[in-house]
Design a protein that fits this description.
Layout (H helix, E strand, L loop, with lengths): L13 H9 L4 E4 L9 H9 L7 E8 L2 E8 L3 E2 L1 H7 L5 E3 L2 H8 L16 E5 L8 E7 L2 E5 L1 H8 L2 E3 L2 E2 L1
Parallel strand pairs: 3-6, 6-9
Antiparallel strand pairs: 1-8, 2-3, 2-5, 4-10, 7-8
Length: about 170
């Protein structure tokens, strides 16, 4: 992985700006997004030639009235009950897409766990720890960032828990 300089890159997203500001090693991967693609995450994995268990999707859920970010492999799905348990809640449901976009500052399909408008509590699926690097959205459709799971957890303040299934 190439280490990016601390200088802001023109056209960077809030996610890449946050990574650069933190001095974190990361690699940006761009691909041509197909608006007809049924799954943003599967599309990213295929376009990058990366196993779907190394590409993680960022989902926003409502846990007992609080928005929470869940980061899980695109190869599976989010276990809402496990997410609620991981944050000490009772009930979780997927957040309203408009609320997720408004709160994070990103559009659906491009929500990054990094550089969000309002920092939300974040839970990263524990399977991330089995990879040297993972890919997450860099803040827009067709743009992924690759970094170590430890850096991802540190920069988002994420806790690790078994929240993915499948």
């Amino acid at each position: 992985m190439a280490k990016k300089s601390r200088k802001q890159q023109p056209g960077g997203t809030p996610a890449t700006v946050a990574l650069t500001a933190a001095g974190t090693e990361f690699t940006v991967h761009a691909y041509d997004h197909d608006p007809a693609s049924p799954s943003y995450g599967d599309e990213a994995a295929q376009a990058l030639g990366v196993s779907p268990d190394r590409v993680f999707k960022t989902l926003v859920a409502d846990v007992d009235g609080e928005l929470v970010v869940a980061v899980v492999p695109v190869a599976g799905s989010l276990d809402l009950k496990a997410l609620a348990s991981a944050v000490g809640g009772k009930r979780a449901a997927m957040a309203d897409p408009a609320a997720a976009e408004r709160t994070t500052g990103y559009v659906r399909g491009g929500i990054s766990p990094l550089g969000q408008r309002k920092r939300l509590r974040t839970v990263l699926d524990e399977s991330a720890g089995s990879h040297s690097t993972v890919c997450v959205s860099a803040g827009r459709r067709g743009l992924e960032v690759e970094l170590s799971p430890a850096d991802l957890a540190a920069l988002t303040g994420a806790s690790l828990a078994p929240i993915g299934r499948g």
